[in-house]
Amino acid sequence: MDAPDVVDSAGDGYLRAGGGFKHFHGLPSASASSSREVFGACGGAFLIRRSLFETLGGFDEDFFMVYEDVDLSYRARLLGARVIYAHDAVVEHAGSGSLGRVSDRAVFYGQRNLEWTWLKNSPRALLWRSALPHLLYDAASGVAYARRGQLWPWLKAKWAALAGIRSVIGKRATIGRLAVADYESLWSMMDANWIAIKREEKRFDFQYDSQA
User: Fold this and answer.
1) pTM of the model
2) pLDDT digits (tens), the chain, 212 positions
3) Residue 107, H or E segment
4) Does residue 63 contact residue 71 with C-beta atoms inside 8 Å?
């Protein structure tokens, strides 16, 4: 909102390592000038058919905030839905206005909910395929947050994710019964280059946060 020439999100992407990201995050708005299919919709501004939203059961309220849109999009894709980024639909968004970009609460909800999204929605074949990259992704995030003095909220997030595993497994079974998507096509929509993507995304967020 305070920098309309900078992109917050031009649609959400999903990593083969089991994490979400925002396309063109922090880049000039001219970078995102073409409409295209993306993995997911940013919760800041999107349209969805009411019938699909109701079939999905809406947002997962256990998430509270952060990743609830990634989770919704993943479930929609498992039902065969597509997501399109419309470059000419522009919304001025106070990104991370509730939590801040890299606050302790943002770290907690983000790091807990990314685990639930991955475990709850990834089909078994993709779960096993992404398991090692996901462990490396988790380790890298733990080191990064430790360097920022935020190891404790990161650890609390992972513990909370584990504490909620029974509920997640129950939801996973329900989602699996409804899934119709081709898993290879789903895998092809995910990005393998998680290191470069997250490094650039967090660089912008940390820099923005320090200037705020």
Assistant:
1) 0.91
2) 788 889 989 999 999 999 999 999 889 989 999 999 999 999 989 999 999 999 999 999 999 999 999 999 999 999 999 999 999 998 987 766 666 667 899 999 999 999 999 999 999 999 999 999 999 999 999 999 999 999 999 999 999 999 999 999 999 999 999 999 999 999 999 999 988 888 887 777 666 555 55
3) helix 104-121
4) yes
Nearest to 79 by CA among 98, 61, 52, 60: 52
The structural domains of the chain, with segments of one domain joined by +, span: 12-211
Q: At what angle do helices 124-147 and 151-163 cross, to 10 degrees?
A: 150
Give the distance between the most distant pair of CA atoms in the chain: 47
Phi, psi (degrees; rounded to nearest 5) at 191: -100, 135
Q: Helix, strand or coil for residue 154?
A: helix
